[in-house]
Amino acid sequence: MNDRDDFRPLTRSRRRATITNAKTETLKLGNGATSEVKSPSGKQEARNLQLKVDNKRKCDRYDQMSCHKMQESMLSSASSFTNYRGILNWCVVMLVLSNARLFLENLLRYGILVDPIQVVSLFLKDPYSWPAACLVIVSNVFILVALYTERKLAMGSISEKLGLMIYIFNLTVILCFPMMVILKLPSITPIGGAFSLGIYTILFLKLYSYKDVNRWCRERMQVKARSLSRSLSCPSTPSMPSNMHVSYPGNLSLRDIYYFVFAPTLCYELNFPRCESIRMGFLLRRLFEMLLLTQLLVGLTQQWMVPIIQSSMKPLQEMNYTKMTERLLRLAVPNHLLWLIFFYSFFHSSMNFVAELLRFGDREFYRDWWNSETITYFWQNWNIPVHKWCLRHFYKPLLRRGAGKLLGQSAVFFASAFFHEYLVSVPLRMFRLWAFMGMMAQIPLAWFVGRFLRGNYGNAVVWLSLIIGQPIAVLMYVHDYYVTHNSPADAEAL
User: Fold this and answer.
1) What is the pLDDT of residues 358-392, one digit of tens each?
2) CA quadruple 426, 427, 430, 431: dihedral positive or negative?
3) In the annotation, is 479 catalytic?
4) Which residue is catalytic, options 387, 420, 479, 485?
5) Alpha-carbon distance 342 to 471, whole Å?
6) Is 273 in contact with 361 (CB distance < 8 Å)?
7) Is 188 exposed, middle or buried (0-12, 13-18, 19+ CB in 10 A)?
8) What does pTM read for this prediction?
């Protein structure tokens, strides 16, 4: 019954074909559907259609068996592949193995040289050399002078010109006073001197910012401006509850200025972003890192750095360039490792510890400097507190006075070179300008890398300058220090 019903449309079509003097046939396609084809040419067309269906089946089957397509090699720059985690892990394993070999070789050659008692005795053997505590205590005088000057300026007791002269004198003494004390007192060790000068340099930058921001606030009050841009650090809308918001001159208090002195920033604001509470777990982790990494720095310096430096003195005196290059490459690895440990210990562990203790909200102490493709990007991102200070209080004021960008950048590098030399030459009590020339050399290097090298090549040059540049300066200063402070016989024995 069903079969008869199925063939009924075909019977009708044949009858119609008889009337029209044409014939049709039904073709069953591969997918089970039917198609009517006219005759006599219908048979040929049916065959062609069946061939097409068969060819399509063959093509589908061929595509399933195909194993080639248009694609690039994974290591090609045209490839979109980006997951190189395995290669990174391999590099880390190779780095650990190579340094383990060097460390084992060092132990076999020199034995165990780590002596924590020697470091402690270096600071305790003389009150003046522990780390120049007297200089650190005296620095409070300059803080109080700045606060007293600002209060007088706020009340109008002294003129802006007189206040500026007091600040110039105060800031000049901050830089000159510790330098004179260190040069006059031989009992202050180079480590203690460097620590004291670091404190005074930070204080100089902080009080300079303190002066500028309070002056901006006085100018705002004088012109009765309705609002002040955020860059002047006096936001018109408080970023915290009104009972905690401070307005000028209510910020001129001992509590406010000492909070700024201890805060991990160089740029003053009337209202810093504050956290709600102290996270004890976070605080203890940072404290543990500080203690551990400090011991690691001291141990690696005694065990790894000192023997290499001592063995480098004779090739430097004889000007044996082959041995000098070999010593430089030997020194590059431990020196760079110590620099990385110092960076993490200071900019992450220590500054986060202080920020958490003071509930200081802005924790951007560094950015991704390790991805730097230019020298300029590195110096802008590895030390954010200094970069913000230079941008806010030095670079932008120069631009507002009509200086060009190139001149402004060169002036920033010059100031940075001055402070680098100040922090190295004064504690060592000798002036060789190696640090100054190294920083000034960054200007042509930054131009060359920015002009001709970008991407991975630029990043490689940045890393190379960090790994090779610092050991060169270390060798120069250590050599000159030993030659200056030791007799020729002692220097020859090294």
Assistant:
1) 999 899 999 989 988 899 999 999 999 999 999 99
2) negative
3) no
4) 420
5) 15
6) yes
7) buried
8) 0.76
